TrEMBL record:
Swiss-Prot/TrEMBL keywords: FAD, Flavoprotein, Oxidoreductase
Domain Acyl-CoA dehydrogenase/oxidase C-terminal: start-end pairs: 230-372
Residue ranges of every copy of the Acyl-CoA oxidase/dehydrogenase middle domain listed in the record: 126-217
Source organism: Streptomyces asiaticus subsp. ignotus
Annotated InterPro entries: Acyl-CoA_Oxase/DH_mid-dom, Acyl-CoA_Oxase/DH_mid-dom_sf, AcylCo_DH-like_C, AcylCo_DH/oxidase_C, AcylCoA_DH/ox_N, AcylCoA_DH/ox_N_sf, AcylCoA_DH/oxidase_NM_dom_sf, Mycobact_Acyl-CoA_DH
SUPFAM superfamilies, A to Z: Acyl-CoA dehydrogenase C-terminal domain-like, Acyl-CoA dehydrogenase NM domain-like
Pfam families the UniProt entry points to: Acyl-CoA_dh_1, Acyl-CoA_dh_M, Acyl-CoA_dh_N
PANTHER family found in the cross-reference section: ACYL-COA DEHYDROGENASE, ACYL-COA DEHYDROGENASE FADE34
Family note: Belongs to the acyl-CoA dehydrogenase family.
Domain of life: Bacteria
Protein name: Acyl-CoA dehydrogenase family protein
Amino acid sequence: MSTTTEQGAAFRAEVRAWLARAPWPYGLRNYGGTPEASDVPAGRQWQRTLADAGYACLHWPVEHGGRGASVLEQAIFAEEVARAGVPRQLNIVGPDLAGPVIMRFGTEAQHQKYLPGILRGDHLWCQLFSEPEAGSDLASLRTRAGHDGDGWTVDGQKVWTSAAGAADYGLLVARTGKERYQGITAFIVDMSLPGITVRPLRQLDGESKFNEVFFEGVRLPGEAVLGEVGQGWQVATATLGQERLSLGAQAVGMFEALREVAEAARERNLLGDVLADTITSLWMRIWLLRATWLRAISADTELSSPAFSVLKLVSSEVHRDLGDLATAALGADAMVDADDSPLVHRMLVGRAQTILGGTSEIQRNILAERVLGLPREPTR
Ligand SMILES: Cc1cc2nc3c(=O)[nH]c(=O)nc-3n(C[C@H](O)[C@H](O)[C@H](O)COP(=O)(O)OP(=O)(O)OC[C@H]3O[C@@H](n4cnc5c(N)ncnc54)[C@H](O)[C@@H]3O)c2cc1C
């Protein structure tokens, strides 16, 4: 569905008016794509409020409770929540990654069991992909799922699992055979099962959003498999495509961040020619990013397409540079205020953007090989 400029303006006015009067849950802050454990109660309630008002999972088809929103509507919504200073949704993994791959690969029973809980924020999801020896090279993962009667037994370790401590369900990829790609299967894991241990990791910015997750003899029922046995690599690449798309969506909220940076510099009398030039060039990069994002999602592009690597690469590097600019705008206050300034925090988390969802080097490799047709890297 496409939206005319007039319809877009009307939708923007409707969302802005709703955000101004919506009941914000106590303690809700703009925590970005992933809540800390202490953000989860307010985040769940916010997702429920969005669902009641018809603003949850805008991009989902109407049959699954979404709005089947046009590209422009999704961009407008992301911009307006950024402007209001609230999260777009409970977290990225449920609505943007798990939901769409369950719709695509899941059975009817899985649709009915899991999609409503994601839509309404009853269930928080995490993504159990990266391992200590398998990050960029995800296909070398070693967590094993072995046949066990009608079900499976999982042993192994995941790492960098955002929100695992508070998650109800996880989307797991595990090794079920020897073949590098065909030997991988995707599972839906109930995070409360015996044998799962979650250990939080403390980050550079003082928060603890991600975790190590250990599996010791975890019994999964047969119906935990998502897609076919051996189809896990396809599920994983579709999930990563969704993730790149979703990270690109954050771009449209960056105008608000840039405005805050300019304001901080102006307040401190630091908005000289050099800083103004940098702000202008970032402003242009954000516009280009917004246009690239709109084009990528309007073209109905296959999720494994390298188009999303461009989006991920550009959006994360703009994000990082915006964070660095924030400290320049604060001047010496960046040191004094280091603990509680949201702008200093922006600089610290900006660094993570070029790593999560596939590093900038990996995106460049994908673009070099699959778009420019350069020789492939030798595989180990
Ligand atoms: C904030 C944050 C949240 C995250 N959340 C999750 C999550 O919820 N679930 C999850 O599963 N994972 C998550 N991750 C993990 C993330 O997906 C990995 O960190 C990422 O894929 C990189 O893997 P790695 O850390 O093992 O680095 P490595 O793969 O070990 O890479 C180390 C360095 O080598 C470079 N490198 C590696 N291979 C190549 C190559 N072939 N060519 C050129 N350079 C190369 C990389 O670019 C990087 O600079 C998260 C990461 C961050 C930062």
